[in-house]
Amino acid sequence: MKPRPEYSKLALRSFYIDGRPIVSATESEVMRWENQLALNFPEDYRDFLLHENGGALPDERHFVFSATGQVWRVVWFLNFSLKNKFALQPSSWKDMSPALPKFVFAICSIDDPGDIMGVFISLDRNHPGLYIIFTNYEGGPDASTETFFGDPAVVKISDSFSDFVNRLIAEAGA
């Protein structure tokens, strides 16, 4: 695995619920999430959850989706908590994208997505990385990996979560 990005350079603002910040996850929380979702997070994404557990980016931060030649700004990274009823829970995470196969899951929100469904991490070993998925994706939750990754509405934007974060940091000039 590549060296961990300097997450502090993202300058993420914590989410607050009932006046308390959602803090980084513990190893046992991440493991329980993985068990409840029946998946394994990529190591670099696990590391992010253990250090940051999501948060909002400052207004000036953005990421260029070079595969489409358009620019969308990442607004915030999803967070989770097994303890806090207002944060994402395994059940709500599963319900976030019912039209998508179980081998991809959402990681962040972008502003004014227009025709983009979101940014997702692939859990498929043959297709690792981050992808943007456009709203014209029609493969459904039972799509095979060949159908899904061959769909023109699915565009790879990064080889790994670490690469994605490092590109965000570089784009922001941090």
What features would you describe in this structure?
The chain has a six-stranded antiparallel beta sheet with strand order 3-6-7-8-9-10. A two-stranded antiparallel sheet has the order 1-2. A two-stranded antiparallel ribbon has the order 4-5. It starts with 15 loop residues before the first strand and ends with a helix. 25% of the residues are buried. A hairpin with a 4-residue loop joins strand 4 and strand 5. It has a single domain, classed as SMI1/KNR4-like (3-Layer(aba) Sandwich), CATH 3.40.1580. The longest helix has 12 residues. It is of the alpha+beta class and 174 residues long. The protein is globular, with a radius of gyration of 15 Å.
Provide a concise account of the structure shown.
The chain is built from five helices and ten strands. It is an alpha+beta fold. The protein has a six-stranded antiparallel sheet. Strands 1-2 form a two-stranded antiparallel sheet.
